[in-house]
Write a structure and sequence with these properties.
Elements (H helix, E strand, L loop, with lengths): L1 E3 L6 E3 L5 E3 L6 H11 L7 H10 L5 E5 L2 E11 L2 E12 L8 H13 L3 E7 L3 H13 L3 E5 L16 E7 L18 E2 L2
Parallel strand pairs: 3-10, 6-7
Antiparallel strand pairs: 1-2, 3-4, 4-5, 5-6, 7-9, 8-9
The protein binds coenzyme A.
Length: 192
């Protein structure tokens, strides 16, 4: 959006604030594109993101700017431990990185699900992801433990895979104030 300056001489551009909301089926293809463009994520077929947006929409969020999906968090509540939110994938479009958006989405998802514990798995060579979850744990004043999860023999031997560690963050202060990043979350909006 362009707005005139006080002098009225030159317009300034004000970036649109991200809208954080639960995904719907129409978002699945855009979520797949964000995942594909992240390069780092294991890319699932588009069908997986569309199905996820249908069946796990209440435990997932997308961030939307000007009608486009620019980030997402996919998660589910573990059937045998339903107070635990397992975060499957997090991605933010390059144009929106470094502004606290991934942290805002995680905070919003924790608040909406009321989860007591958050789990995720991260490869050792992903410092951005590690820092994202370390900062999340700190904001929630929660304990953050890291352990192994799956072993080599769980994976097909003809596939190249990187070991991931299980990060468990608990207990969550789900009603705590949300992630604060000046100039960003002040504008962030959310609705369901
Ligand atoms: C990981 C990712 C989601 C972070 O998104 P983002 O919106 O830029 O993250 P945020 O701005 O909320 O930053 C969260 C924290 O991580 C830190 N961080 C972000 N990018 C970083 C990087 N490249 N290296 C180190 N730390 C980084 C931030 O400084 C911040 O820490 P702070 O709160 O102490 O300042 C984004 O880089 C991405 O989409 N990467 C590709 C996909 C991926 O690896 N997903 C995670 C595995 S599922």
């Amino acid at each position: 959006m362009s707005t005139p300056t006080a002098t009225g001489s030159r317009p300034t551009t004000r970036p649109a604030s991200p809208l954080i909301r639960h995904p719907h089926v129409d978002d699945g293809a855009q979520m797949w594109r964000v995942a594909r463009d992240s390069v780092r994520l294991d890319l699932n077929p588009p069908y997986a993101y569309i199905l996820w947006a249908r069946d796990f929409h209440s435990t997932s969020v997308v961030a939307e700017v000007d009608g486009a999906v620019v980030g997402f968090v996919t998660g589910y509540l573990r059937p045998e431990e339903p107070t635990t939110l397992m975060v499957w994938q997090v991605a933010v479009d390059r144009s929106q990185r470094g502004q606290g958006l991934a942290g805002q989405m995680l905070d919003e998802l924790a608040r909406r699900t009321g989860a007591y514990t958050l789990e995720t798995t991260i490869t050792a060579d992903n410092p951005a992801s590690r820092r994202l979850f370390e900062a999340f744990a700190a904001r929630h004043a929660a304990q953050h433990s890291v352990s192994g999860l799956f072993a080599t023999e769980h994976f097909p031997d003809d596939q190249d895979w990187k070991p991931e560690q299980l990060h468990r963050i608990t207990p969550l202060r789900t009603t705590a104030r949300s992630h604060h990043q000046p100039g960003v979350d002040a504008r962030a909006r959310s609705h369901s």
